[in-house]
Every structure is written in structure tokens, then in C-alpha cells.
Amino acid sequence: MLGIYRIGFAAGILSLLVFAAGSFGRLDTFSLMFILFTVLAALFWSFRHHVFTKGFSQSWDWRFVFPPIFTLIMLPIVLLPPIARDELIVHLAIPKLYLQAGRIHEIASMGFSYTPMNIDLLYLIPMAFGYDILPKLIHFGFALLTGFTIYFYLAEKIDKNYALLGLFLFLTTPIVMQLSTTAYIDLGLTFYSTLGLIGILKWREKFELTWLVLSAISTGFAMGSKYSAFILLAIFSFTIMWSFSRATKDQFKALRFGLLYMLIALLVFSPWLIRNYLWTHNPIYPLMNGLFTATGSLQSAIQVSAMPPLRMRSLLYGEELWYILLIPFRLFWEGQDGSARFFDGVLNPLFLVFIPIAFIHIKNRDIKYLAIFSAVFFFVAFFTIDMVTRYVLPILPAVVIFTVYGFKNAFEMKRLRSWSVALLVALFIVNGWYLTKLYNRYRPMDYLTGGETKEQYLSRRLPDYSTIAFANSTLPADARVMSFFGGDRLYYWNRNNVFGERLGNDLIRFVQGARNEQELRGRFRELGITHLFINDPLFMKFSKDNFDEKQLVMLERFFKVCALELYGKNGYSLYRL
């Protein structure tokens, strides 16, 4: 288990060293290579005793043959060019901008650039050498590491056979397989949150300071991956104080342990706090901005969104309250990829069969705590964010552990043994069926066997790519393109791109402030805009919904007189002003 922590901490330190190099303007290939080899050498040195004293043969377990087989099955859909939405908007786009500048710098026009980016900075290293597929392998690697964390925990608590079951239950869960094909950050967050969670479970056994420190460092790295990990800091800090105080009645020492935990976690997270404070005077920007700036009110500071998520679901989808309150269960059977209404992610409904059985004749303290942890984490997410399956992924390892214990309990009951095996087989059939759908969706062999080029693959998968490729190949290097309703997918653009405001407010301002098409063109020229990139169907719908007849006529004349269409395909057009 400690080996997993070493690997996780090495990745976290590597990310922070890249952050330091970028902050001092040293995002060059030599500096990045030096940092990478230094960290890898230190990691290898930390394993020297295990490798040279025990050897590989003594630690070999026949069960370890299965993860490489699963990896080989997954690789064809992992080794495809990046096409996922958030890859192109944030997780690859921002590192690309940093590399182009040779440093980490403020990007005021991109709000996402202010979030912590421990995982994203790991992607920056292979991107510096032109390998934008490797970030997806890194993200998949976090899935494997999380699976092995579950394995080592269950091997200690039950046995290695049940541990292997837990490993594969996690890796083959549909949402994990889907995220493994992307360069997102959610699997990295899940890995560090799982390390933090296991550390807390270990701490509660004997109150060893080592496990408190390991858990706190893991939570710090989780916070450096995504702001939602603040939930972990609150839960784990309270657990430290509550469990120690309850066992020893020493409340003062319990408080000290809790404060130590928070201090360590915040120290690991502190580079991002310092960066944001220097940029915006708000260390957790854009969260709670009104508390740190003179322009925000307290009400706006503590509001997560303009409308509570539950109210939003009711308005958007017509869901009644009783149906909304079933979301904790609906996640398992209603999830669909690409559908915000159905949580944009797939779990497995058969988890719900095994989870209750895990609590039959319960004696394991860990199971009780995992249930409390999962409930609190989900409760906070449920009432503060629009529910998306990957946003609650940190509780999936707990769900997997429940499922393993549920299967174990059912298998040990004679009357349920055959049913438990049949349901477990059915569970893996559901997961396997989802994997076949991933293959059918991406058709990886067409690209990997040379049946289609990278350009052809991207054109097939991304409706806007053909127009972007045309712009990259024909526009002058000093062109400045403004995009309207293009989805903010910046990554494949090689020309300076300015994104119109997502709700179209800047377009409304331009049109309403112009008396004719010439003045409208002048508005763009004042910003240095030379070209427009437009999602035609959305642009037309927005215009009809927001402009009167006179303004629509002006827009029509603008595109006839002041904007020349250079290229258009799949509903995306490029215009020269």
C-alpha cells in the first residue's frame, strides 16, 4: 500500500515542480525533461530496497496478470486523438497556451484557467514533446492506481481473491472506462481522494501519525486537482477530531490533530492559493469572490449558481420533487453519456443489489464510516452542483468496497450463493456490453491500423474540425478570430482566437450599439478582430430570439457586405471581415 502512496506523491510533486518552473518562465523541453527524470530517479530510489532486496519474484502474484490484459483491451480506445469536450476547452487547451508562452500566465478571458491544475500540468510534459495522446494514458493510469489502491485495501481486510474482484469492479465500471479514454482530471481526483480516505481508515485503527500525514498530503493533492476536494478536507478533518476525541476523551489533542491535518493539506495546496491571490486577490477564485473583492456582495460570494440545482432540474426537465430525491438511485440506472439530464455518465444498476447486503450483520467499522463518508459527500454535491456522475466519482471506490462485501456476505449464505454468482456475472456482462459500445462509438481500429488519418478521424468525430483546419492552414499568422457559439473548443486552433460570451451578451451589445452594418464591423475592428468563426444554426436561432426585425435586416446586410464567407462545413463557417 505504501508503494501506491509513493507513486501518487511522486506524481503530485512532479506537477508542483512543473508549476514552479512555469511560474519562473521555464516551460522549455530541457527544464521539463530534467524535472521528469529527477522525480523518476527519486521514485526508483525510494523502491530500491524492495527491488534489490526482495526482488520481483517474491512479490509476484498470479492475479497481477489480469490488469495488463485489461490494459491491452482498453489501449485501442485510449490511443486516439483527443476529442472530448473538456479536453479541448480546458485540460489540454490551457497547457497548450502555457507552452506557447513558455510560462504559466494569467488568462483573464478563460475562467477555467484559475482552477487548480495539478493533473493538467502532468499533461503539459508530454505535450511539450508533441505527444497529446499521452495525457489520456496518464489519466487512465490514475484509474489503474485507484484500482490497485482498492485491491491492497481489500487484500488486507478480506483476501486477495475478493481484492481482485474489487479491482475489476472499479476498472470496468462504465464511467471509469469512459473517463479512461479522455484527458480529464476526475480519475486523478478520485485516486488522491481514495488515498486520503484509506489513510483516514488506517488512522482510526491505531491513531498513527504516519497515516494522518499520508492522508493529509493526499487530500492536499486532491484539492490541487479540483476545488470540489474541499469537501474531503472538511470531512476528513472532522473525522480526525471526532474519532480521536471519542476514543481518548482528549478533546484538546483531538483539535490539534485536526488542525495539523488541515495545515498539511493546505500547505500542499498552497501554490494554487498563492497564484490566485497574486492574480485576483482571491486565493480560491472564482469561488466566494465577494468575500475577497470589493465588488462582490456576501450573497453573491456564497452562491454557487444563480439558481439552486434542484430548482434548475425542476424547471429544465419538469421533474417533481419526489423524483429529484431519487437521484442517488437514478444515477445507477438512468445514466447516459453526453446527456446532462441523465447525469452524463453510466454506472451499473446491479451495484444497488449488492450494496444493502454489505450491511447485514455488520461488524466492520470501516464499512460504517465509508457509508457516512459517501452520504455526506453526495449530500453536499447534491445540493450545491448540477448533478453529473463524474462529480461524485470520489465515492465510487466506497461503492465498490460495499459491492465486494455484499457479494461476500451473499456468497457465504447457502440460499443466496447461486444467485450472488449469477448477479455478479450479470454485472460484468453489463460492463462488458458497455465496453463494446465504446468500441463501436469510437471505431479505433480504423485509425490505429492506418485506415484513416488523424485529420480524417478528427473530421469524423468533431463537426467543427474541418473549418478549424482550414483556418489554421490559410489564415495569416496575425489573424484574430472571434468565435460565436463554437463551444470554446480551443485546443485545435493555431490562430489567435477570442471567444464570444457564451450567453451571447457581447453579440447583443455589438448589434444593439450599432446603427448600421458598417458600425457593427467597426465594433469588431476596435477589438482587432479580422475573422469570425460561427456555429450557424445556433447563431441564427439566437439572432431570431434576441433581435428585432430592423436588427435582423442589419445583420443580413452585414454578412452580405462586410463579411466574406471563406469556408463552411457541418454548420460551422469562417468569415473574413
Descriptive overview:
By secondary structure, the protein is mostly helical. The protein folds into 2 domains: 2-70 and 82-97 and 114-438, no CATH class; 459-576, 3-Layer(aba) Sandwich (Rossmann fold). It is 66% helix and 4% strand. Helix 8 (134-157) packs antiparallel against helix 9, helix 11 (186-206) runs antiparallel to helix 12 (209-223) and helix 20 (365-384) crosses helix 21. The chain is globular and about 80 Å long. 38% of the residues are buried.
List descriptors.
577 residues; mainly alpha; 2 domains; 5-stranded mixed beta sheet; globular
Percent of residues in β-strands: under 5%
Taking all Cα atoms into account, the compactness measure Rg is 26 Å
Task: Describe the global form.
Answer: globular
Give the structural class: mainly alpha
